[in-house]
Design a protein that fits this description.
The protein is α+β, with helices and mostly antiparallel strands and 440 residues long. It is built from 14 helices and eleven strands. Strands 6, 7, 8, 9 and 10 form a five-stranded antiparallel beta sheet that branches. Helix 9 packs across helix 10.
Length: 440
């Protein structure tokens, strides 16, 4: 057997594999001998079927099967030994004059080669790193929410601006049928407020969904519809009022602090605000880090220039999935996935050049931390290590779940690396301004 590679250009190559009878005949003979021992053919005792008959009936199909096995094994070995960094899988070239009755076989495969490039982490255009702070207004609002949540609730005969109204919103056309509670003062516009103020239990009110609340998120929650539906919803809903209450805010005293923090860590309103600020900014940091990772990803894709074997990849995509794609469908799929492929190559290059690795035990420990957090939410604060190990083992046996956790852990490692090796333009903002700037 002979294997040779011809470079078409820096990104494309052709591998030729020549196979002769001596390469596969021994295995074919062994398989046919086993067939002969097991063959059950009328007129012959088992194991005494003439080899000539076995060869005539099975010889060609066995030979084709063994040649294909040899071809695949040899091609994979060649790619590994030659340390070829390929994209996709080798594509066999169709040969119209190919003949399985020939003495020798020649196969050709097209390869798409990964490009060579460098990643510049010191680019001139700096990425913005947001530092999200909890403002006094946000702290005021959160303290107020806690006072309301733990306040004293009393029934009202009719709705006021400060009332909580519980009722069912209905619109058959849009399949809306949602029982929920809202504050009257959260309604947008005097027109809507006027319809609800003064209403009593049992009253049925018609409301326009357009500009019913200040933002689409609240409308989405109140009506139980998707974000896309809430964004453009312009219809009429009926509200049947079932309960009207008013909440007297809880005092900022020891009774409230002990309910909120059973360990006694908060004993004053100032300490409460400090605790809220600390917890809020921890959550903000997670969002800021995710945004920073996204921004770095876009930055690296935009500033790391290299070519891809586009024609090869489009051809490969035509047959890579369960359903064969047309040329036009493969082109569309390539255009959709090109950016992701570019970052995948950039990420791999960064990890290789900087010896960023992911050990299996790290993945196990990460999975256990994730499990421990979930169990704490259900009151199990001190699970046993064996229990965590068993659950982590089961999760990591699921390829999809393992891949998801692996991706999250790699992102964490890269985020740490970027923070240590890239210079960012820092910007301190409120959470509200962060949302406006990043998701505008």
């Amino acid at each position: 057997m002979n294997i040779t590679k011809e470079n078409i250009d820096a990104l494309n190559a052709v591998v030729k594999v020549d196979i002769v009878a001596d390469d596969y005949q021994e295995k074919v003979t062994k398989v046919l001998t086993d067939y002969r021992k097991k063959a059950d053919i009328p007129g012959f005792r088992k194991g005494h079927v003439p080899m000539g008959m076995v060869k005539k009936q099975y010889g060609k199909s066995v030979m084709i099967d063994e040649v294909n096995k040899l071809l695949q094994d040899s091609l994979n070995k060649f790619i590994t030994e030659e340390k070829l960094d390929i994209l996709g899988n080798p594509l066999p070239r169709v040969q119209d004059d190919f003949n399985w009755d020939a003495d020798t076989f020649s196969f050709e495969f097209e390869l798409g080669l990964a490009p060579e490039f460098d990643v510049d982490l010191k680019g001139k255009n700096k990425v913005i790193q947001y530092n999200i702070v909890a403002t006094d207004d946000l702290l005021d609002e959160e303290v107020k929410n806690l006072q309301t949540r733990y306040g004293k609730v009393s029934s009202l005969d009719e709705a006021t601006v400060e009332a909580n109204v519980t009722g069912t919103f209905v619109n058959e056309e849009h399949e809306i049928n949602k029982k929920t509670t809202f504050l009257v003062k959260d309604l947008k516009g005097k027109k809507n407020e006027k319809k609800v103020v003064g209403a009593k239990v049992g009253d049925v009110i018609e409301l326009d969904t357009k500009k019913l609340f200040e933002d689409d998120n609240k409308l989405q929650y109140i009506l139980g519809v998707s974000q896309d539906v809430a964004k453009d919803l312009n219809t009429t809903v009926t509200l049947t009022i079932e309960e009207i209450t008013k909440t007297e805010p809880a005092d900022l005293d020891k009774e409230l602090f002990d309910k909120l923090f059973t360990d006694g860590s908060v004993s004053t309103a100032t300490e409460l605000r400090e605790k809220i600020k600390e917890d809020a900014e921890k959550q903000f940091q997670q969002q800021a880090d995710q945004q920073l990772l996204n921004a770095v990803t876009e930055h690296l894709i935009e500033n790391t220039k290299f070519d891809l074997p586009a024609s090869f990849l489009q051809k490969w995509l035509q047959t890579a999935g369960e359903k064969e794609l047309t040329t036009e469908e493969a082109l569309a799929e390539y255009e959709k996935s090109e950016k992701g492929l570019r970052y995948q190559l950039i990420e791999g290059k960064i990890m290789k050049d900087n010896d960023i690795k992911l050990e299996y035990q790290e993945l196990v420990d990460y999975a256990k931390g994730f499990i421990r957090t979930q169990m704490a939410q259900f009151g199990n604060m001190n699970p046993e290590e064996k229990e965590l190990d068993d659950i982590a083992g089961r999760i990591l046996q699921n390829q999809e779940e393992a891949q998801k956790l692996q991706s999250q852990l790699i992102s964490q490692k890269l985020m740490t690396f970027f923070k240590e090796n890239m210079k960012f333009k820092t910007k301190e903002v409120s959470y509200e301004d962060f949302i406006k700037e990043v998701y505008k």
